[in-house]
Amino acid sequence: MPINDCFPYERLVSFVKAEAPRYGHLVDFLDEGSSGIQKTPEEANALSNTATPWYTDIINYLVAGILLPDMTYQQKKKFFHDLKQYYWDDPLLFKRGVDGIFRRCIPEEEIESVITHCHSYPVGGHMSRSKTAEKILQAGLYWPTIFRDVHVFVSECDRCQRS
């Protein structure tokens, strides 16, 4: 009997090159689907309106060696110092924390859903700012403004403010 190589939920990931409006350099966006699958106009429009993630410059340097041309000496020095903590494993970017654990860097559009999941859902339990941020870090996720974003979210949580 031949082996069935067809998997119904298999998704291919491809890269789409687009020019970043701020800096004028290439940015890698993840595009789910394959070249054989036609995109609807809504999907194509959503992809073209996608904002660049906060880690675009890091990925561009790690993958292609592209550095922003208008960086000052101090900015380059800080950039290369921070670059030592990042690791690119195609198609994900990881940052090594001070505890030595690698955490996946997530873009801005995923931040609110991650905080909501770790704070408001039954697994969250409406804990304080520090406990919610700790839960996110224990889940293996990272973004630079994690503590500030969690603080704002918890201070605006209706259920937490009532109690």
Would you mind describing this structure in some detail?
- The protein has about 160 residues and is α+β, with helices and mostly antiparallel strands.
- The chain has 2 domains: about 15-95, no CATH class; about 105-160.
- It contains 7 helices and 6 strands.
- The strands form 2 sheets. A 4-stranded mixed beta sheet has the order 3-4-5-6. A two-stranded antiparallel ribbon has the order 1-2.
- A hairpin with a 2-residue loop joins β3 and β4 (about 90-95).
- α4 (about 110-120) crosses α5 and α4 packs across α6.
Q: How is the secondary structure organized here?
A:
Blueprint: E1 13-19, E2 26-32, H1 41-48, H2 56-64, H3 73-83, E3 86-89, E4 92-96, E5 102-105, H4 108-119, H5 129-138, E6 141-142, H6 146-155, H7 158-162
Parallel strand pairs: 5-6
Antiparallel strand pairs: 1-2, 3-4, 4-5
Helix pairs in contact: 4-5, 4-6, 5-6
Features of the shown structure:
2 domains; globular; two-stranded antiparallel ribbon; 163 residues; alpha+beta; four-stranded mixed sheet; single chain; 7 helices
**What general form does the structure show?**
globular
Order of helices and strands: EEHHHEEEHHEHH
Give the helix level as a range of percent.
25-40%
Class derived from helix and strand content: alpha+beta
- Uncertain residue segments: 9-41
